[in-house]
């Protein structure tokens, strides 16, 4: 089978809610990273076969196939099409999978892939909440088939985060300690300049705005998001954010044609479904299945990026897999760096690629929990 190569990966800084990127239109966020991607690489803009972006809640400024509109807003050629993917939090990781699959099938040679989300303008679940009362959205209400199979069990991330914490015996204090470490790692990475190569500044914002100089005492003062979920507070959850990220995926033929230098090879990609009531647990079985398909073990993996939707998600994954915490989310995760939904998968892969290069590691694994009880897994091999 043909190979798919990662040539470049970049992102905007992560803007905190109502922060420095709040006034940037979603299309312009996407356009910014696409313009930079094309400018940084020796592929003529008209030679791109497709643009595949992830985005969640595609309403308002995020509607209208934002992959296509972002490309056009960047002033790039009219002949290049675009399509937008929604696999919830894993949307741009799935976009990468679709791009790699297109290249590996031999049907495309050059694909721009990434994601965008402006959560200041369009808060999480805006599409779900349309026409519904405020509170936890329940898009399943009234579906006879859904209720016949799953009953009236809550289908929301807070319930799942608490359920995971209870099942794996993870206390609120332990989650707060994990969250504090995420902030510490992110702040250390910023100070050391680890993100400098991957970030394309925008609107005067040069660094991620979301990492906080916080304390366990401050975290302990926070009220739970709901009394029904006593261990789940804002401190142990990912931050809403505004951001975009983009990557260049090409074939071996494109590498030769344009004189490109591959930075990584897509070694494995897969996706797995799990119980939607557990919602956030899927990275555990998905990782096991992916490694089995790839003929690998976690001992072969040098770095892992797993989305910190909630501290309990990553802590349960670590407990179940036994993978070293010191090689997981080494520069902080979404608790510190934010979770701009449709952009997060591309942001994680961008960080993983640059971290493998910085550390000299060979294999990196990315996974993340996704709405509906799903998880993508991508394994890349850094190339010298």
Automatic annotation (TrEMBL):
Indicate the enzyme's highest-level EC class: transferase
Q: What is its EC number?
A: 2.3.1.9
* Positions of the Thiolase C-terminal domain: 261-382
Entry's Gene Ontology molecular function annotations: acetyl-CoA C-acetyltransferase activity
**UniProt entry keywords in alphabetical sequence:** Acyltransferase, Transferase
Which intervals hold domain Thiolase N-terminal? 5-252
Check the record and name the SUPFAM superfamilies matching this protein: Thiolase-like
Q: Where is the signal peptide?
A: none
Q: Which family does it belong to?
A: Belongs to the thiolase-like superfamily. Thiolase family.
Designated name of the protein: Acetyl-CoA C-acetyltransferase
Taxonomic source organism: Halomonas pelophila
List the taxonomic lineage: Bacteria, Pseudomonadati, Pseudomonadota, Gammaproteobacteria, Oceanospirillales
């Amino acid at each position: 089978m043909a190979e798919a190569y990662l040539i470049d990966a970049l992102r905007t800084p992560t803007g905190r809610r109502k922060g420095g990127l709040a006034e940037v239109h979603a299309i312009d966020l996407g356009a910014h990273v696409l313009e930079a991607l094309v400018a940084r690489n020796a592929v003529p803009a008209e030679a791109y076969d497709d643009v595949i972006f992830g985005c969640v809640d595609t309403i308002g400024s995020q509607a209208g196939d934002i992959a296509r509109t972002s490309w056009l807003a960047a002033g790039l050629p009219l002949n290049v099409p675009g399509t937008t993917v929604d696999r919830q939090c894993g949307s741009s990781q799935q976009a990468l999978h679709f791009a790699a699959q297109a290249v590996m099938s031999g049907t495309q040679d050059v694909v721009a892939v990434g994601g965008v989300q402006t959560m200041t303008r369009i808060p999480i679940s805006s599409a779900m909440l349309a026409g519904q009362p405020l509170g936890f959205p329940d898009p399943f209400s009234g579906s006879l088939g859904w209720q016949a199979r799953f009953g009236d069990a809550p289908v929301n991330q807070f319930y799942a985060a608490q359920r995971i914490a209870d099942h794996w015996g993870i206390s609120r204090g332990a989650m707060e300690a994990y969250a504090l470490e995420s902030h510490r790692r992110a702040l250390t990475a910023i100070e050391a300049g680890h993100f400098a190569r991957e970030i394309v500044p925008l609107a005067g914002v040069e660094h991620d705005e979301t990492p906080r100089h916080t304390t366990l005492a401050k975290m302990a003062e926070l009220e739970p998001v709901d009394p029904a979920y006593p261990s789940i507070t804002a401190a142990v959850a990912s931050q809403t954010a505004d951001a975009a990220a983009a990557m260049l995926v090409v074939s071996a033929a494109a590498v030769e044609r344009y004189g490109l230098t591959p930075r990584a090879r897509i070694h494995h990609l897969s996706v797995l479904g799990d119980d939607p009531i557990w919602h956030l647990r899927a990275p555990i079985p998905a990782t096991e299945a992916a490694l089995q398909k790839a003929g690998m073990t976690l001992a072969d993996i040098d770095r892992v990026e797993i989305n910190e939707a909630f501290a309990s998600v990553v802590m349960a994954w670590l407990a179940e897999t036994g993978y070293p915490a010191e090689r997981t989310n080494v520069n902080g995760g979404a608790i510190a760096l934010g979770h701009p939904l449709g952009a997060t998968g591309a942001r994680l892969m961008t960080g993983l690629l640059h971290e493998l290069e910085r550390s000299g590691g060979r294999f990196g694994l990315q996974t993340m929990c996704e709405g509906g009880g799903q998880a993508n897994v991508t394994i890349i091999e850094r190339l010298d």
